[in-house]
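ARCHIVE CARD
CATEGORY: sequence design from structure
SOURCE FIELD: tokenized fold
FIELD CONTENT:
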């Protein structure tokens, strides 16, 4: 589990494909004495498991499913990547609940500067638009952000100077692709609401949501 607050911008050392899977090596400024094989690290928003560590880099195995559903199939050596270590019990929850399970890849359709801030617009696959709401949370390349506006399959976010300077968004331009994780709460509610349709005995109803304080 993560919060979407980027701790370090690392750099891809190499990505070696082995069939439909891959091994990824990333150089990082993390204190590696605090990291061990088996730990979870979000790399551009994708939860990966450390399988090996060197003097200044970490290695991860990437499954075929992850290759297919993320931008890793276009990753190149030297590319900067956003890094976040897993949330520890008792840490402040500064962003929002991020699972590190990417839903889809979106494309940047516009980037413009407004009063030293940067407004990005993204187009994402239509079936995921129902999870994106104005003023709701979304994860882009592992970064916890607030949705400014939504129109059909395009949504926009406002990026403050600090976030631009400390993440890979500073390098992004129209046409680039990014990893997207929509808000997990909306997906859980949708699944629970469909309980009766799927043959489950106790689907969540609007009445139950109201009684539980969600409405």
């Amino acid at each position: 589990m993560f919060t979407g607050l980027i701790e370090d911008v690392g750099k891809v050392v190499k990505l070696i494909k082995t069939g439909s899977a891959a091994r990824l090596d990333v150089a990082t400024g993390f204190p590696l004495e605090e990291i061990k094989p088996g730990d979870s690290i979000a790399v551009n928003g994708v939860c990966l498991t450390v399988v090996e560590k060197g003097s200044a880099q970490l290695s991860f195995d990437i499954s075929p499913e992850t290759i297919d559903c993320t931008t890793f199939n276009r990753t190149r050596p030297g590319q900067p990547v956003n890094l976040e270590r897993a949330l520890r019990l008792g840490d402040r929850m500064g962003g929002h609940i991020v699972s590190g399970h990417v839903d889809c890849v979106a494309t940047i359709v516009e980037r413009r500067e407004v009063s030293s801030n940067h407004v990005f617009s993204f187009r994402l696959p239509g079936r995921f638009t129902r999870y994106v709401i104005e003023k709701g949370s979304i994860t882009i390349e592992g970064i916890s952000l607030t949705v400014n506006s939504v129109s059909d399959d395009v949504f926009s976010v406002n990026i403050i100077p600090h976030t631009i300077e400390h993440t890979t968004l500073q390098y992004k331009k129209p046409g680039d692709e990014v990893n997207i994780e929509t808000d997990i709460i909306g997906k859980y509610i949708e699944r629970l609401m469909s309980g009766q349709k799927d043959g489950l005995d106790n689907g969540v109803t609007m009445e139950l949501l109201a009684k539980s304080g969600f409405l």
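CARD ANNOTATION: Residues 119 and 158 are 5 Å apart (CA to CA). The helical segments are 64-69, 161-165, 184-193, 206-211.
SHELF: design records, drawer C
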